[in-house]
Amino acid sequence: MQWATYVEALNRRLPPLHLSMFSRSRIQDKQVLVDKDPEVTLNQLDGLNECELVAKANEALVCMSPRLQQQGPAELRAVGAKRLHNGGIIYDKPETTRWVRREKATFMAGFGRTMVVKERAISIIVKFVLIAHSPDVLAANRRIECNSSLREGMLLSTRWIKPVQKHAKGQKVAHLIARLRTNKDANQAIREGMIIASKRTWAIWMQKEPWRCLKCQLITARHLAASCNQKAMCGTCGKGHCTFKCQVTDRAELWCVNCKEKGHASWDRLCLEFWAASRQLEDTDPEHTYKYFPNQDEWMWEQQPGYEHLGPSSGWGAPSGRKYGYDR
What we know:
Blueprint: H1 6-13, H2 16-29, E1 31-36, H3 50-63, H4 66-71, E2 80-83, E3 89-92, H5 94-102, H6 104-111, E4 115-118, E5 122-130, H7 138-147, E6 155-160, E7 173-180, H8 183-192, E8 194-196, E9 199-205, H9 272-283
Antiparallel strand pairs: 1-3, 1-4, 2-3, 5-7, 5-9, 6-7, 8-9
Helix pairs in contact: 3-6
């Protein structure tokens, strides 16, 4: 009698939607991201195609010391590269990428000192955190890990969604973005909450939002500000100056570039155009249907209310009236 492996048995039980998401999660674990150092202005990889990018990575691997090469996998090489819109490069090959993450300083010395290996991070929204929390204090993260039973070093950073200087007078709580190292720790934080500033708080995973070019302010734009050839528009009042220079504070003078309406700014997440773009994004991305980051454990397959029985043929349609984002 031939026994099925654990993975085969698991795959037989997974509905098609879960199986697809489980596969995507496993692929992400096998990748490493190389990006431009934020301290430099030029990206030395801009002129290279995928084949040249793979060759450059393999040159860096060859340049590493024989001692480190012996400690690595038997076949130490890059086989695939994908260029991201922001200029970053994703490299594929499970054994090699895991080893590069561990020896990233030595690898980048041969790859190019203007580039860095980015830490893989999972972002979640932690709601109604006491503003007594100090995101800039490193010891605060270690305290959160200890109090919340998270593994040491898994909480990479926290930051307020809205800058402290923009908090309302007398405000006591605010929403926080927490970055964790793995899906496992992010799921634990969503399921069990996090104790921050002596208060248990609850988290949701940070949904993707439509891109908005910070130069022309268009939500439908398929570009970033660095490559925008449109006229600069203020995201607050809609006039021809940079948003950070805007002095308008009267809500009646706000103007949205996307819906061409007064009374709110282009960055307002209550804008109907933003909601429409969010619905379109959500309808085409199955990740929006999940409460947790899907993995092999059954409790991670839980879906948001109204999505429980959606499959590939359903178009991932969002239930009417669902909220988008986190600060509506």
